[in-house]
Write a structure and sequence with these properties.
The protein is mainly alpha-helical. Among the domains are: about 5-125, no CATH class; about 225-285, no CATH class. Helix content is about 60%, strand content about 5%. The protein has twelve helices and four strands. A hairpin with a 2-residue loop joins strand 3 and strand 4 (about 240-245). It is elongated.
């Protein structure tokens, strides 16, 4: 004989609720184990077969009414080691969410699934929504604190920088956001009318940028690279011959002499003979 929902709850020692059937449909009931094994393929997990079926059912309901109430379910529950990865999450209706834990308990006999569907079946949909809201209010700040401590999510500087670059590139290609011609024209017009509008902020940004580069020894904060950049343009004058550091050129400076020149040569290129002319004259016999 088919068991109705109240008899099942009584069997599970789950206290009934006066609002018990207000949100659960009249047709809702827990199927017996025999019914489940008859309905689904015995050679594969009845639980996973039900999840696939319930997932599609929720999708159809959401397509017909985007305000349909659904709940997020972990296919492999957290209590069984399941993760929060998208592949492990699925949207189910309230009733199917209860049945998911019930069927998982039928198949795997995990007492925590029994507790889950017992408690859930004794709550109305409204109570579930209120609990979800409360969980967000309490869990939100705690979750953010944990993310900050572990440098994850919004607090992962490298990933945020990567997302920013991707977003900027997308805007550039699509001519949206800061790359929207209308926005650019408006910004240029505003700056033309108020040239000093962001002057102080630009100076602060530039100062901070230079400070950061100096601390990290990058870009302008790396004297060696800055010197090399200058020499790539001007070349090096030795024995009245200007040598390039481009190996493709007919006359170029070898790495040994170049390194020495960068460290000890003139601060700026000159048409005059460098201060270390005789020293380089000596080196040039061997390395140039």
């Amino acid at each position: 004989m088919k068991k109705n929902i109240k008899s099942i709850v009584t069997t599970l020692n789950c206290k009934s609720n006066t609002n018990f059937n207000k949100k659960l449909s009249e047709e809702f009931r827990f199927p017996t184990e025999d019914e489940l094994r008859t309905k689904y393929n015995k050679n594969s997990s009845i639980y996973l077969q039900f999840i696939d079926e319930a997932k599609e059912r929720a999708k159809k309901l959401l397509l017909s009414n985007e305000n349909t109430y659904v709940e997020e379910h972990h296919i492999t529950p957290k209590h069984a080691g399941g993760s929060d990865d998208k592949a492990n999450l699925v949207n189910l209706t309230y009733e199917d969410h209860i049945l998911a834990h019930y069927i998982r308990w039928i198949e795997f006999k995990d007492p925590k699934d029994k507790t889950a569907f017992s408690v859930m079946s004794g709550q109305t949909e409204d109570i579930r929504k209120e609990r979800a809201k409360l969980g967000g209010v309490i869990g939100g700040p705690l979750g953010q604190k944990k993310l900050k401590e572990e440098n994850r999510g919004w607090f992962d500087i490298e990933k945020q920088a990567e997302r920013g670059k991707k977003g900027a590139e997308t805007n550039r290609i699509n001519k949206t956001g800061a790359w929207d011609p209308k926005n650019l024209n408006k910004a240029n017009e505003t700056l033309a009318k108020n040239p000093d509008l962001y002057k102080e902020q630009r100076i602060q940004n530039l100062s901070q940028g230079l400070k950061t580069q100096k601390e990290k020894g990058i870009n302008i904060g790396n004297p060696y690279k800055q010197r090399l950049k200058s020499l790539k343009y001007h070349g090096v004058l030795l024995n009245n011959v200007r040598y390039s550091i481009d190996t493709e050129q007919r006359t170029y400076l070898c790495e040994t002499t170049l390194d020495y020149y960068i460290l000890y040569g003139e601060a700026t290129p000159s048409k005059k003979k460098p201060e270390f002319y005789f020293l380089f004259n000596f080196f040039s016999k061997f390395y140039i």
